[in-house]
Design brief:
7 helices; extended; 173 residues; mainly alpha
Length: 173
């Protein structure tokens, strides 16, 4: 039996081209951050939240913020007239409204978020910049100084900004 390649020179190519990995998408980064927070919550509160299902529940919170017309309208108004730092105050209020709206989806987890401001803020922070950037014409980059100054869980003593410039500074009758 004769080999098909007899007489032909075979060139060895010892180098292998490996494709560079794609950078993680925003959603993948969010899922990873949420999973880490959920694992900490499980350890801290002796809970047994399943990371994938609870991550989806947390992502539903983002969907409520963007799909409930009254909440989205408040966020849009605030994003258009405020910096990212000031937008976060309206965002925090809207997160609580969205939690109440979606309460039935996961009563135990949403109750925890409503009762524990620190955990609620950590979960909400995962989506804040992404939502702000969806609503403004000039997005803020993750590495920008303004975007990296994320709000602290103890920011309750900070004055809030107006959601509408026409109502700011006017006494309500």
């Amino acid at each position: 039996m004769k080999s098909e390649n007899s007489g032909e020179k075979v060139e060895a190519k010892p180098e292998v081209a490996i494709k560079k990995p794609k950078p993680a998408s925003v959603e993948e980064k969010q899922k990873k951050a949420l999973s880490e927070i959920i694992e900490e919550v499980n350890a801290l509160y002796d809970k047994d939240y399943e990371p994938d299902a609870t991550t989806k529940t947390a992502q539903a919170l983002r969907d409520y913020l963007l799909k409930i017309p009254s909440i989205r309208e408040r966020l849009e108004k605030s994003a258009k007239i405020n910096s990212f730092e000031d937008f976060k105050f309206t965002y925090d209020d809207c997160v609580q409204d969205a939690l109440v709206y979606g309460f039935d989806q996961n009563v135990d987890f949403y109750t925890l978020l409503l009762n524990d401001k620190t955990i609620r803020d950590r979960i909400a922070r995962v989506f804040c910049l992404d939502i702000y950037n969806m609503l403004v014409s000039e997005p803020v980059k993750e590495g920008d100084v303004t975007a990296s100054i994320m709000y602290s869980p103890n920011a309750s003593n900070v004055s809030k900004v107006a959601e509408e410039p026409s109502t700011y500074g006017k006494d309500k009758d």
